[in-house]
Amino acid sequence: MANGPLGGVRVLDVSTILAGPLASSLLGEFGAEVIKVEHPATGDPARHYPPLEDGESAAWAMLGRGKRSVTIDLHHAEAAHLVGRLAAAVDIVVTNFRPATLRRFRIDFDDLRAYRPDLVMVQVSAFGRTGPYADRPGFARVAEAFAGLTYRTGAPDRPPLFAGYPVADGVTGIYAAFAAMLALRQRDLTGQAQLADIPLYEPLLRMMEDFIVEYGATGKNRERQGNQNPHISPNDLYRTRDGRWLALPASTEQMWRRLVKVMDAADLAVHDSMTARLEHREEIEARVAAFVAEHDLEPLMTLLVDAGVAAGPVNSAADVCADPHIRARGSVVEVPDDRTGRTRLMQAPAGRFSGFDATVGHAAPALGEHTAQVLRDLAGLADQDIHDLRHRGVV
């Protein structure tokens, strides 16, 4: 997509599984050319996560789409120079290896900017490049627990819970793409190489705006509260008569007044501040739950929407794919895969823009599908050179 806002930007994705690959995918959706480095024998471990279709992970269709695959065995003595030659031809390198691993592979920031003096590198790791935990291993669930998200998730009388998705990978992937744009802008302003050091836990910690400031103000930890919001009532998931679930947060005074009206519960209007409603949370939540339980989901949604009340169904994947709004916006798309002959159902890029379009790009590549082409075009290698590298097990 040469006419996208990132057209002309080239990204070398030297990362695996999710947070790093998500960051490079987001850049690719808006025009960047993304070249993914994978192990010659196994590829990205994400290729093998079940469920499998024709021996390949269904999720790989999302994680690999729009990228070109180049195989390099980073453990091989000759790999560092080859990665350096590719780094010389790109703007951004995205990686999520630990700092010690990058040093061992000789592809750390200082190693690669020897090949391109104004290189931008975005490094995602569990704990960042500095501090006593810099070389500790970690995944999303470790980061979520470390940042405090897991501590505050779950019912008050039950153990902590993971969120339903490893959000640290997703949040950090998005933040890393944002960091890449900041670093690229700074590089363009100064002409100097830029390193963005993004730990998995820090974007989560930054996201929870109430977590640390409340502790600083009160000296008390924010404990688990289930679905209750410490600042808002009513705010819960309520079960409808037909067994569905409804999210209904009355986050503003106007929304509360509208809800009281549609419930025909004038007596509740006396609770005319959020402080008052939090003091009477048990009564209010019970009344809202009883109201919701009297209705089937679809008629209730019509009633609430007509009254201007913000509410929504708790959707499964099947519900998402069937929803008329999601279909109308194209939030889920069908992407043909010429390599496998399948049509893949997957999420579209998020957001719509007045001056440009995002794209899912071509289907996820086969392992090493573009190795020879990329090494010829970007590293300047002849076919015999590439053949020799294959023979020695470098690619």
TrEMBL record:
Pfam families (alphabetical): CoA_transf_3
Domain of life (superkingdom): Bacteria
Entry keyword set: Transferase
Gene Ontology terms, MF aspect: CoA-transferase activity
PANTHER family (alphabetical): SUCCINATE--HYDROXYMETHYLGLUTARATE COA-TRANSFERASE (PTHR48207)
UniProt protein name: CoA transferase
Organism: Nonomuraea longispora
